[in-house]
Amino acid sequence: MRTRITAVVLAAALTPLALTLSAPAAHAATPAAPYDFNGDGRTDLAIGAPGATVAGQARAGAVSVVYGSTSGPKSSTRTLLTQNTAGMPDAAEADDAFGSALASADLNTDGYADLLIGTPGEDTGGDTNDGTVVMVWGSATGLSGARTLVNDYRTEADRFGQALAAGDLDRDGDLDVAVGSNGPLGLVFVNGPFAKSGGYHGSSASGFPDSYSTSYGVTSLAAGPVTAPWHTSLVAHGRRTGTDDAITHWVPDPSIGNYADWLGDLPAGYVSAIGDIDKDGYGDIAVGNEREPSADPAAALGGKVTVVYGTGPDDPRPDRAPLVLTQDTAGVPGASEQGDRFGSGVSLGDVDGDGFADLAIGAAGENSAAGAVTVLFGSASGLTAQGATSYTQNTAGVPGGSEKGDRFGARVTLTDHTGDRRADLSVSAPGENAGDGAVWSLRSTATGPTATGSVSFGPGTTGVSTAGTPGYGTALNS
After folding, report:
1. Of 80, 141, 274, 413, which alpha carbon lies 20 to 30 A from 257's?
2. 87-126: b or e for each residue (b if 16 or more CB lie within 10 Å)?
3. Chain segment 444-477, per-residue pLDDT in tens
């Protein structure tokens, strides 16, 4: 395998961010969970609309942040972010695609989670599609203040910010940021700790193996503890050279200079999530591959999800067979049909509060791309289809109605918006209303998500323009 490592020290300045609407004040606790921007113990919901028109600039992009409450995401307490928001670095331009990728962590360890936003279409210094990432700071009143994480590898990494993840990736106790791009250097690590002003603490970039297509680069990232609760692992997705077939690897430790030589093979897919399904202390990895076998030899009819169980302190080992799930798997609702796109979105979280991570799977192509979401439950023996449930816009209590092309389930997230220590189910349908997009959130109970009291809102409700096709919900909390 070919590896190329470059290191550099970065510098950037704080640009204050003025917000017109923020969440209610809350007492901060340290450290904050990802996406808890105001430190109130409830996860907030970040929604990317990279196709949004801003001040007449088509596809400039926008991000809505809807704050959590005892009843779930509350659209009346929200923050709208664009590159034209007062104090935000840069300015909205056509095709910037601000909001294409999102990630969160308490980067400056002040007790409030911070938001990372990818803008892969940003042109910088005459470099088309150079890309940038902006860090927006959490506070007791919500998001306030921002600075840019600049792509320092412009000649060898474009569309910087097309994928994002955050965590202690080098095991030094500080949070780091991983950024996916295309070109020879597909993966960039920026070392923490981070502050609102001053310089950064260095970075490195790696040329992934020749099997990775540089045209696509690293297209998706997931971070979470796999080998131990205190160590964040990284899963990277791309496409194979000469094809658009999926390729997926586990990245063991970016602090190793030749880490690309130590990549671990994972089942090929396009998205992934990490969580402890069987509560054995080691994280498990769910990999979604939504395509058909005719398009990707690693795929299955109607799409599939493969669960790789973490079983030891070194890596996700093959001594426990991966679990392959399709809609033809016994107990899984529905049936595998061409174009279902089962696995378009995956998320792991403890829905019923029993300590075992549960799995939400989007099937954005179900029923002529109306879309559906399936939830399966974790247990001591692993993931089980017993009690599995499926949700669509036609499910009683879910607002709206299923329509062709909605793509309900394109993205899913399981996270606690209410503070009851159970992960609520949030779902996006970026095709809703001819590409406007929309988001739903279903509260969780001791028996799983319930449609009773579920909420839905679209771009207009949170201040995003519906001109063109904003694709509201193209990105959700990762």
Report:
1. 274
2. ebbbebbebbbbbbbbbbbbbbbbbbbbbbbbbbbbbbee
3. 999 999 999 999 999 999 999 999 999 999 999 9
Question: Does residue 22 carry a pLDDT above 50?
Answer: no
> pLDDT at position 127, please?
84
